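REQUEST ID: PR-0412
SUBMITTED BY: lab tech R.K.
PRIORITY: routine
TASK: structure prediction, single protein chain
INPUT:
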Amino acid sequence: MIKPIKILRAKAICLLLFVLFTTPSVAQIKWPAGRLLPSFPTPAPVQDLITLRTSGRSASAELYLFASLKGVVNRTTPRIFSYEGNASGEGPTTWLESLDLKWTEPADKWDLITKYRKEISGLIVYDTAQIHTVNLATVLAKSQGALIVAPSLVAKLTAAPYNLPILLDLRGNSIVNSRFINRFMITIGQSWTIAY
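STATUS: complete
OUTPUT:
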């Protein structure tokens, strides 16, 4: 028999996640009535260009981390552009050149976390043993202005010079399992039209 407190806890978490997921973002895409396509914030004239590896020991951890950094920083004004490689042969600066944007490449992409530290509220740690927690961490990070991080990068990001606090740690959380995530996503899918 499931204890009433566990049921209440699960319902509270579902409600919290629902609210966080359905809260609209400010200053992102604007879709005025009568327009065929939305408008986006004007990018900064000089972009920070970073190249991310798509293979290697910590490639996926860094891809997730820096994708969330881009989400936080670019929310109001796009300032970070990343290149993850392209099978069709486009180079890292093709899109920047086509948009007449200038760019700088930091000597170390990790310097961007220091540069934009004031815009980052903290970390949400996902569980590599439960890879679906990446999706949950992403949804939560959006509303918190947080970065999603693999356990392997936590020590680096909580220490100097970053000193980022852990806002939520999803590792080993028994409530966060595939069945819970599936129910949450189904609930969100059914409620999406009601929320807007």
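NOTES: The chain is about 40% helix and 10% strand.
REVIEWED BY: pending
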